[in-house]
Write a structure and sequence with these properties.
- The complex is a heterodimer of chains A (158) and B (358).
- Chain A is α+β, with helices and mostly antiparallel strands.
- Chain A has two domains: 2-33; 55-153, Alpha-Beta Plaits, CATH 3.30.70.3270.
- Helix content of chain A is 23%, strand content 22%.
- Chain A contains three helices and seven strands; from the N terminus they run H-E-E-H-E-E-H-E-E-E.
- Chain A has helices at 2-28, 73-77, 116-120; strands at residues 55-58, 65-66, 83-91, 97-107, 126-129, 143-145, 152-153.
- In chain A, the strands form three sheets. In chain A, strands 3-4-6 form a three-stranded antiparallel β-sheet, with no helix packed on it. A two-stranded antiparallel ribbon of chain A has the order 1-5. Chain A has a two-stranded parallel ribbon with strand order 2-7.
- The radius of gyration of chain A is 26 Å and the shape is elongated.
- The termini of chain A are far apart.
- Chain B has 358 residues and is mainly α.
- Chain B has one domain (87-354).
- Chain B is built from 15 helices and two strands.
- Chain B has helices at 4-18, 21-58, 74-84, 95-112, 130-137, 141-151, 155-186, 191-196, 203-206, 208-225, 237-240, 250-275, 288-295, 299-318, 326-354; strands spanning 117-119, 122-123.
- In chain B, strands 1-2 form a two-stranded antiparallel sheet.
- In chain B, helix 4 (95-112) runs parallel beside helix 12 (250-275).
- Chain B starts with a helix and ends with a helix.
- The relative contact order of chain B is 0.13.
- The chains are: A alpha+beta (158), B mainly alpha (358).
- The A-B interface holds A 10, 17, 20-21, 23-25, 27-28, 31, 33-36, 38 and B 54, 57-62, 65, 316-317, 319-321, 336, 340.
- Chain A: One of its GO terms (molecular function) is quinone binding.
- Chain A: This is 4Fe-4S dicluster domain-containing protein.
- Chain A: It comes from Niastella caeni.
- Chain A: One of its GO terms (cellular component) is membrane.
């Protein structure tokens, strides 16, 4: 019984080691599977993973309209005060006052790309972009205004 | 046909006809010394580059590819950097032993080079106890490692050195037993005799399954003896920073690093000599035509090819297997490898006595 266990121990050890060597050998003889990207050289045709998160942007359509209602859900969701929403009051044609977005302030230098603001947004106004070359010489340049000048809320978005 | 034997013979004849015998001998020793040092330098550069490239390919990376064409000059640049660095000696260290240790490790590696046959008739010293000499001298390097660990006056270094000592001493047994099993088959300790005995086929194939088992045990044991992953407990970056060479920097560190790679080359050369026929081309039984074609490939190419195949195998181990714990390391040796290799030696002796091998 003991001998049987001993031999099966040796057999299982050897077969599992060979399995590992098969995997590494598989990669060794297939250089096409190399996933390294030679970044500054291949800047033009670089492939980033789908879920890579570079910075928060607000999408605007052709009429310079966005979907942000100024609800501040993203500001509340942000764990490190990266987002500051400044709201204003618009007057509707009926003469009612309505809360709207004035400035979407985004501190890129504080952002950890956690994606919580994007998940919190009820109208999908903001999303994560894949740009990542953010280095600048002055940190004030990292303070961004996400809504474009003159943009307004898209009709029908509540 | 190209042969190093003619070159060495003609150099020797020219030396003895031009100078008196003493002078000629001194000149010959100088040439051999220069060749050995040159071989060490080239091997260091080539093996480190090979290791990094193999590692990169196995981990789906590119590896060094900036310095020189396809990164070929990377190791040369690294060596230049190491030479420029300051060789620091810690204040509390035993200065003499601390500075001596890397040279002992290096000299031990150099001494094992003596009986290795690099090609047909191209061997520094063909002593009649070649294999015994190799297994004896290879354990001298543990003195250098222990010396480095002790003299550094650092707990990490001492622990690494003690581990290395335990490891080398225990794995020497199974390496020795698997070497002996080939000696039993070949009937001689002399390297040239062992190679000549593989004229009709390599011992790995001729000795049936016991020879294959001896080969596997030999490879495992020498991987442990050269302190390489999965047996790199002497270095153990995660827990001992760098083990016995924690305190070394600059060229003294480079000597340890170089000695590690030289040792890999040497143990693989011994493995190739014992199991794969050294410089002997691949001969299959009585296929005269096939054997004749194989003879056209120079013997040095055969030797280097086999050696680099084994080196690749050991690198493959390093980049695949997880590291062992100290207790696992010792139980692998004393509970598995040693009993198996003793039983295996018995089988091989039986095969040799009964003449069952091909």
């Amino acid at each position: 019984m003991f001998i049987k266990e001993y031999i099966s121990d040796v057999y299982r050890a050897v077969s599992s080691l060979l399995k590992g060597m098969k995997t590494t050998g598989h990669y060794f003889i297939r250089p096409k599977e190399i996933i390294t990207q030679q970044y500054p050289d291949n800047r033009a045709q670089m492939k980033l993973p789908e879920r890579f998160r570079g910075e928060v942007v607000m999408s605007h359509d052709d009429n310079n309209e966005h979907a942000c209602t100024g609800c501040t859900a993203c500001e509340l969701a942000c764990p490190n005060a990266t987002i500051k929403i400044i709201t204003k009051f618009d007057t509707t044609p009926e003469g009612k006052k309505k809360k709207a977005l004035d400035t979407f302030v985004y501190h890129l230098e504080l952002c950890t790309m956690c994606n919580l603001c994007v998940e919190a947004c009820p109208t999908s106004a903001i999303k994560m972009a894949q740009t990542f070359e953010h280095s600048v010489y002055d940190r004030n340049k990292l303070l961004k205004k996400l809504n474009q000048p003159g943009s307004k809320l898209r009709a029908g978005v509540e | 046909m190209f042969s190093l034997e003619h070159i060495t013979n003609s150099i020797q004849q020219w030396l003895y006809s031009t100078f008196n015998p003493t002078m000629a001998l001194i000149l010959e020793c100088t040439i051999v010394m220069l060749l050995a040092i040159g071989l060490f330098a080239v091997l260091g550069l080539v093996l480190v580059l090979m290791e990094r490239k193999v590692a990169a390919r196995m981990q789906i990376r590119l590896g060094p590819n900036r310095v020189g064409p396809r990164g070929m000059l990377q190791t040369a640049a690294d060596t230049l950097k190491l030479m420029m660095k300051e060789g620091l000696t810690p204040n509390g260290a035993d200065k003499f032993l601390f500075n001596l240790a890397p040279f002992i490790v290096m000299i031990a590696a150099m001494l094992i080079l003596a009986p290795i046959a690099f090609a047909k008739g191209f061997q520094i010293w063909d002593i009649n106890i070649g294999v015994l000499y190799v297994s004896a001298v290879s354990s001298v390097s543990v003195i250098g490692i222990l010396m480095a660990g002790w003299a550094s006056n650092n707990k990490y270094s001492l622990l690494g050195a003690m581990r290395s000592g335990a490891q080398i001493v225990s794995y020497e047994l199974s390496a020795g037993l698997s070497i002996i099993s080939i000696v039993v088959l070949a009937g001689s300790l002399q390297i040239s005799d062992i190679i000549a005995s593989q004229q009709t086929g390599w011992w790995l194939f001729r000795g049936h399954i016991p020879a294959v088992i001896a080969f596997v045990i030999f490879i495992i044991a020498v991987t442990a003896e050269t302190n390489r992953a999965p047996f790199d407990l002497a270095e153990a970056e995660s827990e001992l920073t760098a083990g016995f060479h924690t305190e070394y920097s600059g060229m003294k560190f480079a000597l340890f690093f170089l000695a590690e790679y030289i040792n890999i080359f040497i143990v693989c050369a011994i493995g190739a000599t014992l199991f794969l026929g050294g410089w002997m081309p691949l001969h299959i039984g009585h296929w005269e035509g096939f054997n004749h074609i194989m003879d056209y490939i120079p013997s040095s190419v055969w030797f280097l090819g086999k050696t680099f195949f084994l080196i690749f195998l050991i690198m493959w181990f390093r980049w695949t297997f997880p590291r062992l714990r100290v207790d696992q390391l010792l139980s692998l040796e004393w509970k598995y490898l040693l009993p198996i290799s003793m039983f295996n030696l018995l089988l091989i002796t039986l095969i040799a006595i009964m003449g069952w091998h091909f």
